[in-house]
Amino acid sequence: MIGEIGGEAEEQAAEWLSRNNHRNLPIVSFIAGQTAPPGRRMGHAGAIISGGKGDAKSKIACLESHGIRVVNNPSKMGIAMHELITNNGESITMDL
Question: Distance between CA 79 and CA 71 in Å, rounded?
Fold first, then answer.
């Protein structure tokens, strides 16, 4: 899952996945905008961060609290997924 600062869609997705990922499939995420300066509008629609929600740090914390592996660079998503699928070197069976 790739998300960005602003809004609450990623947090809502994490909560939904916690309730509905019954097959316990691995999930990897990246949040864009981690280096955005506070108070500056960013993104295509000017991501709005307010009330302690929507910033990269709170999104990452929420995702991780729901068991989602978060990477700091989108190029690392495949590596992280491979690690989750192979369970740190031990193959696991996934019914895809």
Answer: 10
